Amino acid sequence: MGKQVIVLGAGMVGVCCALELQRRGMSVQLVDRREPGMETSMGNAGVLARSSLMPFNHPGLWSQLPRLLKNDTVQFRYRWQYLARNLGWAARFLLSARPAVFQETAEALDGLIRLSAPEHLRLMDASGARRRLRDTGWIFLYRTQAAWDSGALARRAFAQYEVPTQELSPAELAALEPALSPIFHRALWIQGSYSVDDPHEVVAAYAELFRRQGGEFRRLTAGSIRRDGQGWTVQGLEGSGSLTADRLVVALGPWSKDILKSVGISLPMAFERGYHMHYSGRDGASVTRPVYDTGGGYVLSPMARGLRLSTGVELDACDAPARTDQLDLAEARAREAFPLDKRLDPAAWLGRRPTLPDSRPMIGEAPRHPGLWLALGHQHIGFSTGPGTAKILGELMADGGGAASRHYAFRPGRFI
Question: What sequence ranges are listed for the domain FAD dependent oxidoreductase (predicted)?
């Protein structure tokens, strides 16, 4: 097939795919309704972490389920009408918490994360974004011994996949992060990991690198896609134009589900929504790296715009109205642990994390749709694993057979 490619979606995953295909000699158009990095990639905690190999649906989820279903925790909320309409997805998600599936997922995600980290460093150097990078890891905080004990499964997984960690006593934690209140029984420092001070600016820098190297970015709100002869066409909404290329990569994150319906593909995708807000620290207080309060259900990250408080999961429709009670509760818990001062944003930011039942992304060609490629479903880790996803996609496009066996865990055919 020809070398003209449209990459639909300009978040971290889409931008990295555009760069990788460009590097392989293809003529790439990057397309989105907004400027690069303005949607889900903007609002994360900015962590590029080896520890992200632990999916939300792990074997320990079964014991947590009675508490989570009460729908009053900081970590997890759901809209019951949405869950009732998506019971099939929920059942498959829970079944994927079985030990055998969990092990397959953890191994696949570990490989994807390992592949991504050196590519991030290369792209940061090439784009000038390296100044935004910290190599100080991040810290998991535990308020009680029971909370520490409940994290044993994660610690075993980290040890199995050689994620470097260090257990911290209260005194050791205070030496690293003196602004935290002394309410934590123990902490786990995840080392060998990175964080950035502005996720959006990193994506924007990668996109600018793509442009400098001859790539084209187009603003278009895609309404549908279709196969035209040997190529693919993206049709804009309301007569806003269309684009055609030999191959099409759908990397629209949570909006991939709707666009793929136009070619009869029904994705089993749900939306783990989340909120963030920026704060100042009282008397200039801050943290030097992201911290995850496992009991408080939030991550606090030092960003260029202030301290970013990111919430846990809210299961609801992709574009349902915001419900900020989860953020309010997370803020209250954060104030127990840190001297937060004023809110710095006029309104809470809302993002959508696109999640497939086994918490693995789809990377590869869509079955029965030649020339249609998918790079989607990254749940919470699209920002950190975009470069690895792009490497796999490039391998699959260039060497389908051999690469397909190497990256079997991410095959779209497991759900399509």
Answer: 5-396
